[in-house]
Amino acid sequence: MKFVQKNACFIALFLLGIGFLSSCKDKDIIGGERDPGKPTVFSDFSPKQGAIRTRLYISGDNFGSDVSKIQVYIGERELKVVGANGKQIYCWVPGQTTTGQVRVVINGDSGSPVEHTFSDQFNYLKSTSVGTLVGNVDQNGNSGIIDGSFEEAGFTYPGWITYEPGSNSVFVTEIDRAVRKIDLAARTVSTLITNGQASFAKLQTTTLSTDTDTLYLVDDNGNRSTPNKVAIAYTLRSENYRRVHPALWDVGAYGVAPHPMHGGLFYTVTNGTPIKKAVPDPVTGELVPKELYRIGGNLSTLIFFHPSGNYAYIMAHSRIYKSMYNWDKQELEPAIIFAGGVAGDVDAIGTSARISRAYQGIFVKNPAYAGQEDEYDFYFCDQNNHSVRILAPNGMVTTFAGKGSPTPDGSKSGYIDGDPRLEARFAEPTGIDYDVERKIFYIAERVNKRIRTIAVEQ
What we know:
This protein is mainly beta. The chain is 5% helix and 44% strand.
């Protein structure tokens, strides 16, 4: 019953919002166009406090309805103006806002703009919240590889995320299919590379070089035995990531990790799970495989370097291995199980923790560790547990987001935004990366076919 009531409330609010936005486009509404011969009145704003994505309403008269001429600020932080109908301005409060006075600027076609600052302050409440960035699906949850604006764009099987800070873009690997680019400023999605280019068979992952100018493309080739396939290719920022060049031939690859200090490539292969390094051939100078050691089994493993380069985590389904880096040999040493063991879902330390499909991960500095030997937590997607989890330097595994809003059937998956632990739900999240400057995680979900965000405020 609570679930039905909650959805009924949501639908009512949604319809109310549609009605408001529609009214903003209606030229016949009262006060639809601003009259420069009449005074502009600023009465109040509400609510007086809120967190990220709070709807802020400013009431008054003679605002006009052209949102391109209206600017709203809380302190120095500009808000997103969604609509206006002459008597009310409707805004969204963005993340990383601070408590401050609300200021409104309305520009006219000629003359000085009208500006007003309310005496009351808006009290910004810091929070961590899960949201949806982009991913258009139909009523049955179906979509496709569709380019266009955020309102139009769709995904088929988004499984891997690479954030590129230089252009403020997100690369999304559609597993086995394509590499897409999300332009966060333009709010558009485009397709960069498809499976048919450079003899790709099954695109799996992408990784930026240490200087972020090169995007490595990894292909497992759909086989575990045929040699001399393009396992790792690359594309360049200077070429707008449109041309593909071969980098290394092997049976295939699953994930690649450049060393953060010197850029040397280490990669994983599904055939017997070897950990390999790309080394230059002494005669030709071309990169060739060098096997370092094997994890064992036929698992799809992935590798991630700590920012210091001192060690790497190797994800192997229910286990996370730790491999120390030998600086003299410039190689990774045989790995030990650092967290997990038997598949399950338990927050605990070391091998007492239970994980059910560790996938992409990212190291994020934790201010609470300042001055310690290791200042980074490792955030990773647990695909089958439909959650984002954290591996601390001491081996402690905790759940960061997902599995909120309990259901009677005990299901862990779903699609709900909101508080990371109390409300948010994911469905097979496998891709994650982090924008350090804006403190935003980007999450790729295979089942929901969406790119989600987790905005972290400290």
